[in-house]
Amino acid sequence: MHVVKKIEIIANSFELAKILESLDKSGVHSHAVIRNVVGKGLRGTTEDLDMTMLDNVYILAFCMPEELKRVVENIRPLLNKFGGTCYVSDVMEIRSVRCVASI
């Protein structure tokens, strides 16, 4: 096992292509996307997607610790401009045939 960085982004689906392009530009070439995400934010309100007509997406990606600075530099301007949130945490990856460390 070894430490990798887990990147979790919640943003408007309208910005999904830009976010994925930024991750790719940063060297993060694989990800998972979960669509139609709803929840309660820091403002204490839930968004009714039927009312807003906007869908949120949850993007999950992983990178090596030394790649994180480049990811943050590319993602932060998008989140500042279009909204959304990003969380980064340390996680342990179990070595397998196809893992982040082997890329």
Overview of the molecule:
The chain is α+β, with helices and mostly antiparallel strands and 103 residues long. The chain contains three helices and four strands, in the order E-H-E-H-E-H-E. It has helices at 16-25, 49-52, 68-82, and strands at 2-12, 31-37, 56-63, 85-93. The model has no long low-confidence stretch (mean pLDDT 85).
What's the short version?
The chain is an alpha+beta fold and 103 residues long. It has three helices and four strands, in the order βαβαβαβ.
Residue ranges: pLDDT <50 for 5 or more in a row?
none
Strand content: 25-35%
Please give the share of residues in helix.
Answer: 25-40%
**Number of discrete helical segments:** 3
Shape: globular
Strands in their spatial order, largest beta sheet: 2-3-1-4
- H/E topology pattern: EHEHEHE
Mean pLDDT comes to 85
Distance between the termini: 15 Å
Structural class: alpha+beta
**Major beta-sheet overview:** 4 strands, antiparallel
Radius of gyration: 15 Å
Give a count of the beta strands, DSSP E runs of length 2 or more: 4
How would you summarize the topology of this molecule?
Layout: E1 2-12, H1 16-25, E2 31-37, H2 49-52, E3 56-63, H3 68-82, E4 85-93
Antiparallel strand pairs: 1-3, 1-4, 2-3
Helix pairs in contact: 1-3
Highlighted features:
4 strands, 4-stranded antiparallel β-sheet, 103 residues, single chain, alpha+beta, 34% strand, 3 helices
